[in-house]
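User: I'm putting together notes for a lab meeting next week and I want to include a structural view of one of the chains we've been expressing. I don't have a solved structure, so I'd like a prediction I can at least talk through. The sequence is below, exactly as it appears in our construct file.
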Amino acid sequence: MTELLTARATGSRQVVVASVPSGHVYVRHLAAEDESQVRRLPDPDPADPQRSAEQAWWPPVMLDPAWIRAAEFDVFHLQFGFDAWSPDRLHEVVAALRARRKPFVYTVHDLRNPHHEARELHDAQLDVLVPAADALVTLTDGAAAEILHRWGRAAHVVPHPHVVDLDLMDTIRARHVASSGAPRVGLHVKSLRSGMSPERLLPTLLQFAAATPGAVLQVNGHRDVLEPTGARYDEALARRLRAAADDGLVDLRVHDFMSDDELFDYLASLDVSVLPYRFGTHSGWLEACRDLGTTVVAPSCGHYADQGSVVTYEHDEDRFDAASLHRALQQAVAQPGLGAMTAGERRAQRAGVAAFHVGLYRELMERTRRSGG
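Assistant: Thanks for the context. Below is the predicted structure for the 373-residue chain, given as structure tokens.
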């Protein structure tokens, strides 16, 4: 992690941030637990911009140039939500910010959008946002190096904060007893993103479970993927999983979207969680596992290995190495809790992350003031 800025610029007035979005868990945990220096505007309701949307923030109203021209804020901070925006529309957003001389911060979460099968649109979006931002933030050294290589711009590297609420981390962990030689390995197929390829991994996962005494392969998936009436039904994957379950090789669990509590309890029940991504950049799922003491097996694509201690296997758009996955599984079950962080460690990390953002916002405001903004 690069050295964090300190809040040192313009006085102590509360900074008002237009955060896109505001209600996302990552953004909520950028704030200090006793936040007093920053006020992030609530997400306007897409159906009525005069109301807060709370968690229903998409499509983000704050990316409307008309909203930018009319709203009162000090700093504009883009995180997510522009997936469907054209580059021309993003140019309009940047122009509206420039016209009002509002500092623009962009946190580069995705260098390859996990929802887009082709990369061209996201690359074009980044070609607008990365050069235009007054400051760039990203989550890993690897991502920062890629940004420097592609655009010649330096990005601050600030770690992903906790995902599970701090007061729940120890409580959830305490519900589950650590494995004693009978590991439970989880593969979550949920609502399949373009960047996921769980079917590539299944044969190796099945072989590993069969060859490991007491091991259980648990596969969870959403009804929309694994039931015939689902909007995204994947017949081949569903048949393969149900056949394996009928043969007693898989603990298959098909369900609707989990609540946060259900998801965190599920992750804590696993010894190992396998990420089936063939492309992507960073992972909130990985961070939730670190909160809950679950070892992560992550692909070599993206920058997952830079987020924290994981066991890596070879997997990207062009290649999957089954032998490397088998080795990674062996290493993972031998290292329970790899990369885990305690609530105390996460609390200290969050304080540092929050201090960085306060300092960055104030520094940009002061720079704008000195330049006559």
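A couple of points you could mention at the meeting. Residues 1-10 have pLDDT under 50 and may be disordered. Residues 22 and 43 are 6 Å apart (CA to CA).

User: Perfect, that's what I needed.
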